[in-house]
Amino acid sequence: MKKSIGAKTLAYPTPAWLVGTYDMYGKANAMTAAWAGICCSDPPCITVSLRKATYSYANIMEKEAFTINIPSEDYVKETDYFGIASGRDEDKFEKIGLTPVKSEVVYAPYVEEFPVVLECKLIQSFELGLHTQFVGEIMDIKADEAVLDEKGNPEIEKIRPIIYSPERSYYGLGEFLGKAFSIGLEGNKK
C-alpha cells in the first residue's frame, strides 16, 4: 500500500546542470539548476525553471540565450559551488577554476571542462509561481570527442552525468537496464 507524502518538488531523476549566461556587462556567469529537462522534439527544446531572485534569471531575460552544461561526476564539487555562490558577488568561473567559452551560436558562455553543452536561444518564458520556466530552442550541441560513440552520439556511460536528488544529494548513474523501445517487447505476454 502506498502512503501519501503530500505535494512536493520530488521527481527522479533530476539533473544537476549549469545554466550559462552573460550578465549586462558581458561577464560570464553560470548557476546550477535541477528543475530542467527536454520539452519538445521538433524543434528540439529544453526547459529550465529559475527563481526571479537569481542573477541568471535577469541575464536570460536580457540576452534571450543560455547554455545547458552537463557536468561529469568529476566536477560534482564545482557543480555544487555554482549553486551556492552568486554571480552578483563574484566571478564564479575564476573562483572555482573553470573555463568559460563564448558560444559561437548564441550569446551565452559554456563550460569548457564539461563533456556536453546545449546552446539555446530563448523562445518562451512562463511565470509559474515562485519560478519562471524558460524554454530554449537547442541551436547546437557540443560534445567532447571522448564521450562520443562510433556514430558520433554522446554515450551516457562516458559522460557520467550528475543526478540531483531533491533531498539535497548528488548521485552518479546506476547500471544499464535495457534498450528503450525494445526491452518492453521481450517476453511480454498477455
TrEMBL record:
GO terms for molecular function: FMN binding; oxidoreductase activity. Gene3D superfamilies: Electron Transport, Fmn-binding Protein, Chain A (2.30.110.10). It comes from the Archaea. Keywords: Flavoprotein, Oxidoreductase. It is an enzyme of class 1 (oxidoreductase). Its cofactor is FMN. SMART domains: Flavin_Reduct. Its EC number is 1.5.1.-. Residues 10-155 form the Flavin reductase like domain. Belongs to the flavoredoxin family. This is Flavin reductase family protein.
